[in-house]
Write a structure and sequence with these properties.
Elements lengths: L6 H27 L4 H30 L4 H22 L3 H24 L2 H9 L7
Helix pairs in contact: 1-2, 1-4, 2-3, 3-4
């Protein structure tokens, strides 16, 4: 079955891929800091802000997709990713290392789940569900 996804869904998929890529990048930079990479710690902090920015842009794109008739779960899930990234940046800025490391692992898992769900989502199923009044069916 062909996925005739609107451009807004393709943009959400691109944003989700960016979020996942940043999560993997952050994990690599964090691992480098365990071996005394002070420079990597600075880069990890900078890329944390970039990651937060990418999650915000992705949430905006998800809002556009919902406006184009997509299910609301895409927007809600993206907002959870933004909230988690905000917690991550806050823990990092406050230098609360143990919860930051644990939360970072959970963020990577959340980014993976979001990307997977957005790519498995087929817009044509949503169109049929919207007609039946069930637009939030994944």
């Amino acid at each position: 079955m062909k996925d005739d996804a609107p451009r807004s869904l393709l943009l959400v998929r691109t944003g989700a891929t960016g979020v996942l890529s940043m999560a993997v990048c952050q994990a690599g930079l964090a691992a480098g800091t365990f071996f005394g990479g002070v420079d990597l710690l600075r880069w990890h902090g900078l890329f944390g802000l970039v990651t937060l920015g990418v999650t915000i842009v992705t949430a905006i794109l998800a809002g556009l997709y919902v406006r184009d008739g997509g299910p609301r779960w895409v927007l809600w899930f993206s907002l959870v990713v933004v909230a988690w990234a905000t917690v991550q940046v806050t823990l990092g800025r406050l230098e609360i290392a143990a919860p930051h490391a644990f939360s970072g692992t959970l963020f990577a898992m959340l980014a993976t789940a979001f990307t997977s769900w957005v790519f498995r989502h087929r817009h044509d199923r949503v169109a049929g569900a919207a007609a039946a009044g069930r637009a939030d069916t994944p």
